[in-house]
Amino acid sequence: MTAAYQTRFGSLKNYEKGHVEPIADDVRHYAFSNCFDIASKSKPYEKVVFGQNQIYVLETLRAEGSSPWYTSAHDEFALVMDGEVEVHLVQLDASQAVADPEKNGAVLVKGEPKGPKMGWMKLSRGHQGLLPKNTAYQFRSAGEPGVIVLQTCKGDLSIEKWADICQSH
Fold it and tell me: Residue 37's closest CA among 153, 161, 152, 169?
C-alpha cells in the first residue's frame, strides 16, 4: 500500500491554517503556527516570532510598503514566502554600526543610513537573501502584501504572541 501525498503551496491570499496531527501522542506536547496566518493579522514589518531554538528565532514579517532601516551585529537571512520584495543594502559607517558585537536581534538604524550603497536584491517566493552584519537593510514591497520569514536571533524588536498564534488543543 502506497501513501499518496500532495504538496500545496500557501500564500497570504490562500492558505490553510495548519494544525498538529498527532499519530500516537498528545497535541498539547507541541506548538504549531503558520507564517501566512500570522502575516494576515500583523502590522507591516512587525517581527513576530513563530519558531525558537534557544537564542535563534524565525520571525514572520508582513511585507507591505517600505520598512524602517534595520541592522544587526550578526548575519540574518530573509526568505520570501509570498509576494515580491526588494531588499536595499547600505554598508554602515562605523558611527551607525551596532556598538555591542554580542547584541542579538535587529535594531533600528537611527536616521538615514550613512555609508556606501551595496545594491539591492529583488526576491520573490522561495528566494533567500543574506543580510550581512553591520549592514543597513530596508524591505520594499510595492505590490500586494507579501510574507518574509527572517532567520535571526531573538532581540528587542522580536514580538512574541504565542497564545495568539499557536494551536492550543
Answer: 161
Helix (H, G, I), strand (E, B) or coil at 29: helix
Residue-by-residue DSSP string for 51-71: EEETTEEEEEEEEEEEPPPEE
- Cell 554602515 locates to 92
- The structure's pTM equals 0.85
Q: Classify each residue of 123-133 as buried b or exposed e, where b means 16 or more C-beta atoms within 10 Å of its C-beta.
A: beeeeebebee
Spell out the alpha helix ranges (H) of 10-145.
Answer: 35-40
Query: 112-117: which pairs have CB atoms within 8 A and are 24 or more residues apart?
Result: 112/69, 113/69, 113/71, 114/90, 115/90, 115/91, 116/90, 116/91, 117/88, 117/89, 117/90, 117/91
Look up residue 150 and give its three cell numbers.
Answer: 527572517
Query: Burial of 157 by CB count in 10 Å (0-12 exposed, 13-18 middle, 19+ buried)?
Result: middle
For 90-117, write each residue's pLDDT tens digit: 999 999 999 999 999 999 999 999 999 9
